[in-house]
Amino acid sequence: MGKQLGQGDIDALFAAAGANASAKPEGAEGEVVLERYDFSSAGQISNDQMRAISSVNDLFARNLMHTLGAWLRTPFKMKLVAGEQLPFSEFLERLSSPNYICSIRLEPLGAVGLLELELALASPIVDVLLGGVGRAWPARELTGIEDAILTSVVQMTVQELNLAWQSVGLEFVFEKRESEAAVARMLTSGEKTLCVSFEARMPEAQGAMNLCLPAVVLNAILRRLISEGDRPKRRSKEAQARVRQLMGEVKFGAALQFPSMRLRASELAALEPGMVLRLPLAKHAISELRVGGLQLGRAHPVRTGEHRGAQLEGAIESEDLSGVLETQSAAETMSVN
Fold first, then answer.
1. Backbone phi, then psi, for 274, in 5-degree steps?
2. Domain check: are 149 and 293 in the same one?
3. 2 in a domain, yes or no?
4. Cα 152 from Cα 142, distance rounded (Å)
5. Distance (Å, rounded) from C-alpha 190 to C-alpha 5?
6. Distance set, CA 255 to CA 92, 271, 298 (Å)
7. Strands across the sheet with 192-202, in order?
8. pLDDT of residue 198
9. Is residue 216's pLDDT more than 60?
């Protein structure tokens, strides 16, 4: 037969169990505190990340303003209006109709974003590129030619996006124009998206451009964007080539002249039209080529076709040229300020 426990034995067992539960193991720091986690907050963009995004997109807006303005040869203003996190369903509700909306692939993430351009802004751009003055027409669907022209403008916009986001290794690839039905199937209605809105103005029209990106896949890139914020920026080869190209279009004041000399006041006072003023220079004296008031080299005045020219004598050192250009740039900057 099994052993039977009395009431005293049972009380002793319960007392021992209570003592073991109240005793803490050596080295234990206490119980782990559990916190409630809301899975709906997954993909939420922090305030620091939103500030970093605003900085990048503001750079994009300024670059696109100058690029499109120079290409269209008409005043074109663009600015960042807002950046906010929205459910994809709310982004769809804000879309105008008809519109121009295209899909853009985010590499190396493999995700897909959307770029919308209001037709109120698209029509004057097409009008300018077709030789018009940039007037807006009533909202309607684009013709095949107009669609092809606007696609080239959107591709230029995507290139500027790449320049703005290249510091974090994010590349935008233009895919195609999408129908409203195809756009609605790209993301789930409840998925969080980053919606960035821009406002563009032309002399006779204004409109909006909206960029929609899935927020979840951007978190890793955004963390890198914040970490890169405090590091010195390094220009890519493409950016360096672009800066060099733009600097090559800068114009500096230049003059081909005789070296400084002294003349008698009586000779200057006696000058009349047709007189020859004798200069204290040898007949083979070489003129000075000055850029920004600084001597760059020596040259002979010559004829080149229907224009005058300067035939340089001797080589110009690159250090001397750089010094002259930097000095002139600094002088012009001080005069503007």
1. 95, -15
2. no
3. no
4. 14
5. 62
6. 61, 24, 11
7. 77-87, 192-202, 205-214, 111-118, 99-107, 171-177
8. 92
9. yes
| Non-local CB neighbours of 144 within 8 Å, separated by 6+ positions | none
Q: Which residues of 49-67 are buried (b: 16+ CB within 10 A; e: fewer)?
A: beebbeebbebbbebbbeb
Q: Are residue 104 and residue 142 in the same domain, yes or no?
A: yes
* 152: in domain: yes
Question: What confidence score (pLDDT) does residue 259 get?
Answer: 80
Q: How far apart are CA 293 and CA 313, in angstroms?
A: 19
Residue at 225 is within a domain: yes
Q: How confident is the model at residue 334 (pLDDT cuts 50, 70, 90)?
A: very low
**72 and 102 belong to one structural domain:** yes
What span, in angstroms and rounded, lies between the C-alpha atoms of 111 and 219? 13
For tokens 């590129």, what's the residue? 129
């295209």: which residue's tokens?
Answer: 102
pTM tops 0.90: no
C-alpha triplet 65, 226, 168: angle, nearest 5°: 60
Q: Are residues 209 and 89 in the same domain?
A: yes
Contacts for 193 with CB less than 8 Å, ≥ 6 apart: 85, 86, 87, 88, 91, 187, 212, 213, 214, 215
With respect to residue 115, please indicate whether it lies within any of the assigned structural domains: yes
The answer on 209 and 83 residing in a single domain is yes
Residue 332's pLDDT is what? 46
215 with 262, same domain? no
Asked if 93 and 196 sit in the same domain, the reply is yes
For residue 179, give its domain range.
47-239
CA angle 102, 114, 67 (to 5 degrees): 75
| Distance separating alpha carbons of residues 37 and 35, to the nearest angstrom | 6
Per-residue CA distances from 98 to 114, 136, 180, 250, 278 (Å): 16, 14, 9, 42, 77
Two tokens, residue 276: 């020859």
Place of tokens 């300024």: 62
